[in-house]
Amino acid sequence: MSFSKINASAATLTKNRTEGSVVPASGMCVTCVDGCIGMCEIGKSAYRGHEVIYPQPFGVITSAGEKIYPVDYSHFNIMGSAVGAYGIEADSNKAIFPAVNIEAVFGHDKGIKFRFPWVIPGIGSTDIAKNNWQGLAIGSALAGTGLTIGENVVGMDPEAVIKNGRAVDTVDLKFRVKLFKDYQRDGYGAIIVQANVEDTRLGIQEYAIEKLGVECVELKWGQGAKDIGGEVKIRSLEKAQLLYERGYIVLPNPTDPNVIKAFEHGAFKEFERHSRVGMVTEESFAKRVEELRKAGAKYIFLKTGAYRPADLARAVVFASKYKLDLLTVDGAGGGTGMSPWRMMNEWGVPPVEIHSLMYQYAKRLADKGKHVPAFAAAGGFTFEDQIFKAIALGAPFIKLVGMARAPIAAAMVGKTIGRAIDENQLPVYIERFGNSKDEIFVTAGTLRKELGDKEFEKIPCGALGLYTYYERLAQGLRQLMAGSRKFALKHITRNDIAALTPEAAQISGIRYVMDVDKEEVEQILNS
Length: 527
Description:
This protein is α/β, with parallel strands linked by helices. It has three domains: 10-53, no CATH class; 61-227 and 278-527, Aldolase class I (TIM Barrel), CATH 3.20.20.70; 231-274, no CATH class. It contains 21 helices and 17 strands. The chain has an eight-stranded parallel β-barrel with strand order 4-5-8-9-13-14-15-16, surrounded by seven helices. β6 (161-163) and β7 form a beta hairpin. The longest helix is centred in the last third of the chain and has 23 residues, at 461-483.
């Protein structure tokens, strides 16, 4: 069985000529014909070269790997019970699913509180993030969850003021932070500013702390989509030259006269902007944490990608030793922007495996009495069952799940519906629910009552889309938890899920479904 799809994908806008007959190992058509125009990835690479490395069309899509891993979260089931209740009185009139508390509280002083146990990790300088920021920021703030401003936002901002290599004023970052804060309610949720190598050089986090009042900052080692720095496409020669001047890697060189001439003649239409890879050492890590604390950071997070196990061990140990507040561990295959497509599919440790290793490493430190930060698991999560399973797999250390593509999808759909309402062009599929946002979005009535008519009317439909999606996840998670008789997140344990295959059990340390409750079963049968 082949786990990978090779040489043809919707992500690279390629397909096989003989779609029904493809060689599994190479992905090539069984018969490659002289005269074919080249619709597959090999063929398209013959005339567009490196452009075909990346998912297309850039700026209007998110993308994630389509490799099928031997074990994933569907290989676990949630265990329910007919007995008792944890976190509430075992009374059928009280132990109802709306009573389940899914608030997440974490941080060194327990000062960060989320209404729901999830966060959007690292939405940065890509067009897809910028074009949907209103929905993401306002929706997250209203819901009381976390939203991370990802890498390169200031460096990509043509209106940012940079003096002596440091950011002193911004437009985009200031807008992103303010939008979240303006809609934050009762102190729930957090806006987090992330930094990569370039951001650190520009002093972005110091600026965010000192000038914008940001309390949470995040160091970034990588993500589940790629093991190199972030990339975007640039369609403007002037912007490409600006980024080149700011020290970014821009390909091809936008200051080369021959490149400029080729661009102006239409030989290519987009430049690539790449970030540098970080070089992690404990000395530099400790120094950076100290710098951020001196600058006034109240909470410090670390985000690491699907690197090899030794790097995960470093992340866990450094987060423990230097008393970080959250460590996000991203599994292979995820992605939102312009990650190289083959890299997204073929590198890194997959989610179940990396989260299982994370649990093992955290437990070893906890057993020694060491500080263990809160953990967030990321890597393709979309629905409440997966959220439950991840929290159970990493219990008691995992407090949150990181999701990016799914929230962006919800915000984009909400935005599209809003535009269709304004243009009176609602498709039949949507029109059956009504013609206004009050009729279409099921949470509109409650939000209108909470915010008042004037404030509610300011809410963009992208934010309503995200908020309503979150409301669905919250109710679904409460139902699953009530069925497991767990009425607060802290009561979820690894025993609340079962592995469906011996392989899943071996990797995760979660009991095989046929072995669950074995000791208790013996007691019951022998009583």
